[in-house]
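Budget justification note: compute hours in this period were largely spent on complex prediction jobs such as the one shown. Inputs:
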Amino acid sequence: MSVLIYAENQNGKFPKSALEAVSYGAEVAAMMGTDAIAITCGSINGDGGLGNAGASNVWVANAPTSDSQLMGKLIVAAAAKANANVIIFSHDVAGKMVAPRVAARLDAGLVPGATALPGADFVVRKNVFSGKAIADVAIHTTNKVITVLPNSLGVKNTGATAAVEAFAFDAGASRITVKEVKSENKDGEIPLPEAELVVSAGRGMKGPEHWGPIEELAKILGATTACSRPVSDIGWRPHHEHVGQTGVTIRPNLYIAVGISGAIQHLAGVNGSKIIVVINKDPEAPFFKAADYGIVGDAFEVLPKIIEAAKAFKAAH
Amino acid sequence: MKILVCISKAPDTTSKIAFTDGGSKFDENGVQFIVNPYDEWYALVRALELKETIGGTVTILSVGGTDYEPIIRKALAIGADEAVRIDAAESDSLYVAKQIAAYANGKGFDIIFCGKETINFNGSIVPGMVAELLDLPFVSLANKLNVNGNTATIEREVAGGEEVIEVNTPFVVSAAKGMAEQRIPNMRGIMAARTKPLEVVPAAAAEAATSVKSYSLPPAKSGCKYIDAENAGSLIQLLHEEAKAI
Ligand SMILES: Cc1cc2nc3c(=O)[nH]c(=O)nc-3n(C[C@H](O)[C@H](O)[C@H](O)COP(=O)(O)OP(=O)(O)OC[C@H]3O[C@@H](n4cnc5c(N)ncnc54)[C@H](O)[C@@H]3O)c2cc1C
Ligand SMILES: Nc1ncnc2c1ncn2[C@@H]1O[C@H](COP(=O)(O)O)[C@@H](O)[C@H]1O
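Corresponding output:
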């Protein structure tokens, strides 16, 4: 018996969400008194840091990661070889693609987006109602699949190294043809779902030509930019920046919201942020109720002061 | 083109979220239910656009009790041709997926549309399960979808960007933002919806693989600490020293 974790390899590097999934799997394995085996695709450098995140073994396979059907077969084959009845993914794009297929194939209960380790009787905590509530979900089946919500549990470093071996798998022909991959992020910018620091702005900025200070503050802090839905709908900002109920869900350590009213549909995408800063000229803006720090004032007067302080801070640290 | 759209029911996005029976049940008191936004705005509307350009039928399918009927009528008012309700409690994702797969199996649907996720359970897993149970390709988190003959070209979200893929029908797709614009049903649609066929199908035999033991509310924020606008720069120091966020 063992715990199997799928770790998504992005061009030879493992994103934090993959390391978090491995770390989660290692803790579940420890609870069960067994080993954590990580499986990945593509080429990796050494053990890719997966040993340090808790994996005892790393299996490297060759399969088309854009085809959920073949990836599902790969994971099911690896689970059989590892004799694993607990399988862990990150609740990221890859996890949402492959985990449900694996669960259906193995007739396994699946808890998507776990925010805590399983308790007694495999009850797993997850957010529901777009972060407005929490559910404790029991898995009744022998085979169990869990996807781990990124940026909610962190990585426990063990200092260990994992044994790496190839995992032979013949994927067969894919029914999906990849035509083009478009990267939306500017060079060096961290994609929004993975960002730990986010500076976001809304209709209060009055027009796209006023985004300079938002971008500048983000750049100084090393943050990624985001926006409210109307702002992307009217084309002031690109669609992939839209956070909220119908956009991207984020869980950064810091979310700075400038000129955003804080409608419930916006909050649904950002209420998992650890620290929320709200800058709004209206003291009655609903966002202040969800904020840790608030500044009531005109963004165009407040932002230059913050930018100046951020510059000084970065120069000193 | 024969299209199936899986429609789930969700509390209106502004609903107050509360629980009864010792945290075991969602408190529906005063809650308005809507068609899950991803299913309506994106999946259903794109399915209707395809029907309008290349012809065919759009069937909507829900797994749920009689309480589903008002939202099924709403989806019919937006323009779907017919509806099916599988008479079963939506207890667990795998259970729901098995119901959908059991119904769709052998009916020759070219595209099975789902939403990206339900806004109450936030699973994002039913569509992938349906695809696996029907042995079909699955395209997750699709932002754009066009069909040419029996080949679909789809743009979908991947880590750090987008991917353009091609897939032949039949397949399952989960729809995200960008796929279509919201449509408001007009009076004619609402009238027509009353007489469109709604077939009720008994549940297939299956067990729930998971169950919610209890619900709770997240701990409340301790309150907002206000910083004087004149002194806005001090935010940076607080974020570093007190919040340890930078
Ligand atoms: C089903 C559904 C789904 C939705 N999904 C989303 C979603 O995913 N994401 C999302 O964001 N929205 C979503 N919405 C829309 C949401 O309800 C709000 O309309 C939207 O979030 C408002 O955007 P905003 O705060 O930028 O604009 P506004 O509501 O117009 O607020 C602008 C704010 O800026 C402040 N302001 C103005 N000038 C200044 C200034 N000079 N300095 C400082 N502050 C200033 C104002 O006081 C105000 O609070 C959804 C709505 C529905 C019905
Ligand atoms: N009870 C249901 N009836 C019909 N379709 C559903 C049901 N529950 C979920 N779905 C579909 O599956 C998608 C994803 O649901 P979930 O995995 O629960 O987030 C939804 O957007 C719907 O398209």
